[in-house]
Amino acid sequence: MCGIVGYVGSRPCAPILFDGLVRLEYRGYDSAGLAVIEGGQLRVPRAVGKLSNLRRLLDAEPLVGATGIGHTRWATHGRPSEQNAHPHVAGPIAVVHNGIIENHLALRRELVAQGVTFSSETDTEIVAHLVHAAVKKGTDLATALRQALARVEGAYAVAVVSRDEPDRLVVAKNASPLVLGRAEGEAFAASDIPALLSHTREMLFLEDGEMAVLRAGAIDITRIASGEKVERKPRRIDWSPMQAEKGGYKHFMLKEIHEQPRAIEDTLRGRIDREGADVVEDEIGLSAAVAAGVQRVLLLACGTSHHATIVGRYLVERLAGVPAVTELASEFRYREPVVKPGDLVVAVSQSGETADTLAALKEAKARGAHVLALVNVIDSAIARTADGRLYTHAGPEIGVASTKCFTAQLAALTLLAVYIGRRRGTLDAARASKILAALLEIPSRMRETLAVDKDTQALAKKFLDARDFLYLGRGLSFAVALEGALKLKEISYVHAEGYAAGEMKHGPIALIDNHMPVVVVMPRDSTYEKILSNLQEAKAREGRIIAIATHGDEEVRHLAGDVIEVPAVEEELTPFATIVPLQLLAYHVADMKGTDVDQPRNLAKTVTVE
Ligand code: AGP
Predict the structure, then answer these.
(1) Is the shortest distance between the CB of 400 and ligand 1 below 6 Å?
(2) What is the DSSP letter of 140?
(3) What tens digit of pLDDT does each residue of 242-284 get?
(4) How many CB atoms lie within 10 A of CB 114?
(5) Rounded to an integer, what distance in angstroms lies between the CA atom of residue 369 and that of residue 298?
(6) 58, 239, 364, 552: most buried, per Cβ within 10 A?
(7) Catalytic (active site) residue 302
(8) How many contiguous H segments (helices) and E segments (strands) does the chain have?
(9) Which residues contact 151 (CB under 8 A, 6 or more apart)?
């Protein structure tokens, strides 16, 4: 989730572009750069690290050109470095891009075979070379970009300039955000509204499959494929800059709950083969040989990531037929863990910097395990320490409470389980296709599930004074119960406990009385009859039952005091649907209590101490 900006007009563009990048810093900042047309040349200052490093370059050599583009990077392909920083240049062309080009490897191979030399590891540089190849034949910049994008598959918000056409910049959009602004004698482009607010409030939002030529005070929109002209009315945006960074949501956490469909789409993008029956090896961080030889999978993580690994464990056993165990990273190293050749250790971490997980990973590696990092931050400590890397592409997660990274981890773990199962021959193509097809449908199912927001607001209000919550689940829903309880306690400070429903009769059922809300996670799956009887046991003890159930479950309606319905999905994928109402319930309870939802007390986003 990078940030791109563009400007064409009468003022020096460097300060405008830099300020725009500062406004987009929440979208990621492992490196940044500008490309400014000045005196018939392209000036391309770039710096790795925070924007302040780019600031120093601009202070040392001020730029005065009035046309340019800028980029702040959240790496997806290619580690954070100066040569991987955008803009990427080919001849007179400079390009910035936010998104993922799915067929980047095939296009790179084709261009290399034509004699093109690449200077970066990024997918973006391919666009620069494709546009350059067209303008070398005399094609104008807009047509060259149109032709280049006809070859590209995947998500992009892209802006290009050419030193040979200094009066314009050309932008295009598919599946990544891009907003345009216009003022007297000026035109602007950016990934998001905050970058434009100080210059204009009249904004034009490009749709997927559209491109635009921006000149001083003029914006011409066309369809990428057909070239057909598009008329688009500007919208007036009255948000404050901070409101804009949160996309109009009250808190980053709520924004990130609603970003989950996109985070999953981006995590899956380019990783399922064309036949839909397998996972692409290039993207999984694990060779086919190692996957075929896996004898046991050991999943290490903390907190929410640990809950994701409990789902991962079920999926690896169910889909790959491999013994799997999940361990709290903070406990793993204090045993004498037995690690054998053939063990695949998967370290799961949003930040890639959690000290307990990093320490456990090193311990497992020292004992001979092959280690895969499943992380959200490219080149993080856990990523660098592992033998291979499977990245979630959820973008920066600002809220301390993890939401979109949790479900992005579930998506990546599902891909991993299918990949191992296909290579071990324990998962046939038909079943793999069914799971992968259902997985590709999950973003749509989650969009439908987000509609329960109103119901969860009402629930939050009804149970606002409850002092203890119990969350119950079986099978995959046990992990969801744990995660739902963690969400509530970490942002609302209300005590909540996730429990395996089958364990209730072994003690905890003594807790239940008519003050106790009991959240029962009970999608229509193979454990349904059992969890239904657990619900009845809790009800018999006057528990206040809140059921998270599948659409159309009439049975539970007569038993539970409150029911939140979620769409029906494949059994292996139910956590994607059932976790959403629990995230929203926790959010609304905390918001109504007035706690600091995005930065809850005593917590840090990344726990780098043991
Ligand atoms: C979850 O909402 C918390 N922020 C916390 O439990 C977090 O999941 C845990 O600290 C692990 O962080 P990581 O995924 O970055 O390793």
Answers:
(1) yes
(2) -
(3) 778 888 899 999 999 999 999 999 999 999 998 999 999 888 9
(4) 9
(5) 9
(6) 364
(7) no
(8) 20, 26
(9) 103, 107, 130
SS3 content of the chain, % helix, strand, coil (to 5): 40, 25, 35
H/E stretch holding 606 reads none
Closest CA to 79 of 384, 349, 354: 384
The span from the first CA to the last CA of the chain, in angstroms, equals: 30
- How many Å is the maximal CA-CA distance in the chain? 81
Between the CA of 401 and the centroid of ligand 1 the distance, in Å, is 7
- Cα–ligand 1 centroid distance for 352 (angstroms): 10
**Shortest-distance atom of ligand 1 to CA 301:** 16
What pLDDT sits at residue 447?
A: 97
In whole angstroms, give the CA distance from residue 184 to residue 203.
13
Paired tokens of 120: 């970066």
pLDDT value at residue 245 = 82
State the Cα–Cα distance between residues 9 and 302, nearest whole angstrom: 50
Cβ-Cβ contacts under 8 Å for 454 (sequence gap 6 or more): none
Specify the amino acid at residue 185.
G
Cβ contact 208:173 at 8 Å:
yes
Q: How far is CA 96 from the centre of its chain?
A: 20
For residue 137, give every residue at least 6 positions away whose Cβ sits within 8 Å of its Cβ, in sequence order, or none: none
Q: Are 453 and 465 in contact (CB under 8 A)?
A: no
Q: 194 Cβ partners below 8 Å, 6+ apart?
A: 23, 24, 241, 244, 245
**CB contact at 8 A, 150 and 191:** no
Indicate which residue's Cα is closest to atom 9 of ligand 1: 303
Catalytic residue among 365, 462, 530, 605: 605
DSSP string of 317-352, one letter each residue = IIII---EEEEEHHHHTTS-----TTEEEEEEESSS
Q: For residue 56, with 0-12 CB atoms within 10 Å meaning exposed, 13-18 middle and 19 or more buried, which class applies?
A: exposed
d(CA 565, CA 501): 19
pLDDT confidence band for 605 (50 / 70 / 90)? confident
Single pTM value for the model: 0.85
Residues 6+ apart with CB under 8 A from 568: 523, 524, 550, 551, 552
Cis peptide before 87 (omega within 30 of 0): yes
